[in-house]
Amino acid sequence: MASGNDMKSHWQLDPQLDFLNHGSFGAVPTVVLQVQQAFRDQLESDPIRFLAPERELEPKLDHVRGVLADLVGADDRDVAFVLNATDGVNAVLRSFPFVDGDEIVVTNHGYNACINAAEFAAQRGGATVRVANVPFPIRDPGQVVDAIDHQLNDRTRLIMIDHITSPTGLVFPVAAVAELAKSRGIRVLVDGAHGPGMVPLDLRSLGVDYYTANHHKWLCAPKVSGFLWVHPQWQREVRPTIISHAANRPRPGRSQFLAEFDWKGTFDPTPILALPKAIEFLSSFYPGGLDQWMQVNRNLAIDALGLLSSGLGIEVTTPPEMIGSLVTVPLPKPENANAGEVHETLQSRLRQRYNIECPVFPGVQPNTYLLRIALQAYNDLDQVHRLVAALRDELGLS
User: Fold this and answer.
1) In this structure, are residues 257 and 75 in contact, taking their beta carbons and an 8 Å threshold?
2) What mean pLDDT, rounded, does the chain reach?
C-alpha cells in the first residue's frame, strides 16, 4: 500500500513544506496538469473548432458529464458545470423565487461566502436568513437536525446546509435534514464543496433539491471546475450567474438548463476536461479504486485527530460517522488575546517558523478558535507530529 512519502512524487508541492491544507484549494497531480496542458494546446491550435459549442465543445463536455454523473450517482441531464461550489450556490439562490416574508435557514458552520450569497439573495427578494446554531465540539449528528428543526416555521422556503463543513470538517447528516425538510415542504440546497472524492455520493437517493461541489478539492482536478446538480423539478427555474447566448438560442437536443450552463461566454474548459484523468488517477492506486482511496484518507484523518487530541490535551467527541478527511480541533486561547488576533497570528507563525500550512479559524462559538488539517494521500503522520510539537511550543504546552 502506498504511503504519503510514496505519493508525494505525484504532486509538485514544495518538499520543504508540510502542506496540511488540501481542503482550501486542493493540489493537482502532475499527470493531470499534463493532460490539461494537452487540451490547452489543442484549444490554441484551432480555437473556433475547440470552443464553439456546436462544433467540438458540447461533445467534450458531455463526455466529462457522463464520467462525473457515474461517480456521484446522477443522471447526465441533471448535472451542469460551474466555476466552483460558490458559483453553484449563487446560481440557485439568485434564481430562487423568494417573496416578502420568506426565510432561508443556514447553520453557523456554513461557508462565509455562501452565507453572504444567502444574505444577498434574501435582501433582494424580501426574505430573511435564520441561523441554526450547531454546537462544536459535537457529540451526535442528531444535534444538527435538531438545531435546524428549531429554526423552521411556515415561512421557511429553503435550507442551505454544508455536506462537509469548511471550518469544522464535520460530515453533516444531509439525508436526515432532507427528510425533515421534505416533511415540511421545504427545499434543500447542499454546499458539497468537499464532498466528491472525500465521501461516497448517490445524488439520486440523497433526497435534496440542489447539490453543488468542487472538482479541484478532493478529486484533485485543476482549479476553476465544479458542478451543480439540480432536481429535474427545478431545472427550468435555475439560471447561471452569467446570462449568455443560450437564453434565447436553444441548442438542438439539449435542455435550456444544460445549454445555459454549458456556454456562459468565452472560457477555458480545460479544467473541466481534465477531470476524467483526475478520477482515473485517484482510482488507480488501490484494488478498491476511489472508494478505497477515500477510506485510506479517512483512516489517516482519524489517526491525526488522535494525535492532536493526545498531544494537545483536547477531548475529542466527534462521532466517527461525522469524520471525513478534514479534522478540526478547538485550541486553548492564550490569556488576554481575542480570537481574531489568535487565528491570524498563529496561522502565520506556523507557516513562517515551522513551514507548516494549515488554517486557523475563529470558532463557531464566540471567543473561540479552531485549527483544521486536511489529509490527502501525499500527507503522513510525521507531518502531524511536527504540527503537534509546533503547537505545544506556540501555546506554551511544552
Assistant:
1) no
2) 93
| Helix/strand/coil for 224 | coil
CATH class label, 4-20+287-394:
alpha beta
Closest CA to 228 of 270, 186, 191, 178: 191
What is the per-residue pLDDT across 142-153, written as a single tens digit (0 to 9) for each? 999 999 999 999
Question: 370 with 363: CB under 8 angstroms?
Answer: yes
Q: How far apart are alpha carbons 357 and 350 in whole angstroms?
A: 7
For residue 172, is pLDDT > 50? yes
The domains of the chain are located at 4-20+287-394, 33-279
Q: How confident is the model at residue 54 (pLDDT cuts 50, 70, 90)?
A: confident
| pTM listed for this prediction | 0.94
Locate 262 and state its grid cell: 454549458
C-alpha distance from residue 332 to each of 168, 211, 346, 368, 392 (Å): 16, 35, 12, 8, 11
CB-based contact 197:290 (threshold 8 Å): yes
DSSP 8-state class, residue 250:
P
State residue 175's pLDDT score.
97
Per-residue cell: 52: 464553439
Q: How confident is the model at residue 341 (pLDDT cuts 50, 70, 90)?
A: low
Q: Is the Cα dihedral 198, 202, 206, 210 positive or negative? A: positive
Helices (H), the chain: 4-7, 22-25, 30-45, 47-51, 58-72, 85-95, 112-125, 142-151, 174-184, 203-206, 256-262, 270-273, 275-283, 289-312, 339-354, 381-394
Give the full edge-to-edge strand order of the sheet including 360-362.
326-331, 369-374, 360-362
How much is the average pLDDT of 158-171?
Answer: 96
- Residue 137, preceding peptide bond in cis (omega within 30° of 0): yes
Q: Which CATH architecture is the domain 33-279 placed in?
A: 3-Layer(aba) Sandwich (3.40)
Cell of 124: 433582494
Distance CA 270, CA 248 (A): 26
Residues 6+ apart with CB under 8 A from 20: 356, 357, 358, 373, 374, 375, 379, 383, 384, 387
Give the per-residue pLDDT at 344. Answer: 65
The terminus-to-terminus CA distance of the chain in angstroms comes to 35
